From TrEMBL:
Gene3D superfamilies: Aldolase class I. It comes from the Bacteria. GO terms for molecular function: 3-keto-5-aminohexanoate cleavage activity; metal ion binding. Its cofactor is Zn(2+). This is 3-keto-5-aminohexanoate cleavage protein. Keywords: Metal-binding, Transferase, Zinc.
Length: 274
């Protein structure tokens, strides 16, 4: 396990509306400016969902390519595109995300209830994503919403081999209504079920953000924070911006004697080519 802490920022997501959360970055300009300020305070990777001109979630390939290009030009961050999209996105559009050639992409390891919706991830689709990333040299981050999905990850690795980069990195997304709860005992159980040699980050949705963050640091894991997952800084206090969440995570990582990794250090951990 690496000594430092990889901090990923997930600044936008697909669930919050700009009208409800004005600080949410939705244009390319807002995203790049957010990425820069988050890098300055300790982020090493960015998990990107883009929005269209109407501020609604989009998987437009041209815009995805422009986003990867702009983030590479303006920041040193590891650029991870979401293949999860929104719960309404078709599989073909989600697979096409890989054509934008990010450094990394998410790969959710199973279907999960997602509030009142269903976040669909069929086995054949997971295999297609995994192979698509292997072929293109894109490093996956396996998103785990429930503990049983770790058994699916082991099955995937057994049947289809290691991912591009040769290293397995997992992100636990905890506290989604329908998924695993965001608490210490569940995170410890999930860490105990990781494939050998895997690294992990964790994020807790909403009010589970702090217990998950403290537990992840104590368990030697990495952190994901951002307005995709959390729009309240504390009870009744809206998040000012994504950098505020990254700065809090970086401060706690330093207190834990596991200071934030630079983007290049993160690339080494993840197996992303420099
Ligand atoms: N928006 C969620 C339905 C991912 O980015 O890969 C799925 C999600 C996971 O956010
Ligand atoms: Zn996401």
């Amino acid at each position: 396990m690496s000594l430092g802490t990889l901090i990923t920022v997930a600044p936008t997501g697909a669930e919050h509306a700009k009208a409800d959360v004005p600080a949410l970055p939705v244009t390319l300009e807002e995203l790049v400016s957010t990425a820069r300020s988050c890098e300055q305070v300790g982020a090493a990777m960015i998990h990107v969902h883009i929005r269209g001109a109407d501020a609604k979630p989009s998987l437009d390939l041209g815009l995805l390519k422009a986003t990867v290009e702009a983030l590479r030009a303006e920041t040193g961050l590891v650029v991870q595109l979401s293949t999860g999209g929104s719960v309404h996105d078709p599989e073909a559009d989600r697979l096409r995300v890989l054509e934008a050639m990010p450094d990394s992409a998410s790969c959710t390891m199973g279907t999960v209830n997602f509030g009142d919706d269903v976040f669909m991830n069929r086995w054949e689709f997971i295999v297609a994503l995994h192979k698509g990333m292997q072929e293109r040299g894109i490093v996956p981050e396996y998103e785990i919403f429930d503990i049983g999905q770790l058994a699916s990850l082991q099955r995937l690795l057994d049947q289809h081999g290691l991912p591009a980069g040769g290293h397995v990195h997992v992100d636990f997304v905890m506290g989604v209504p329908g998924g695993m709860p965001g608490d210490a005992r569940t995170l410890v159980a999930a860490v105990n079920a990781l494939p050998d040699g895997a690294t992990f980050s964790a994020t807790g949705i909403g009010r589970t953000t702090l217990p998950v963050m403290f537990t992840a640091l104590g368990a030697g894991g990495h952190l994901r924070v951002g307005m995709e997952d959390t729009i309240s800084y504390s009870r009744g206090v809206p998040v000012r911006d994504n950098a505020q969440l990254v700065a809090r995570a970086a401060g706690l990582a330093k207190i834990a004697q596991r200071p934030p990794l630079s983007p290049d250090e993160a690339r080494k951990v993840l197996g992303v080519h420099i």
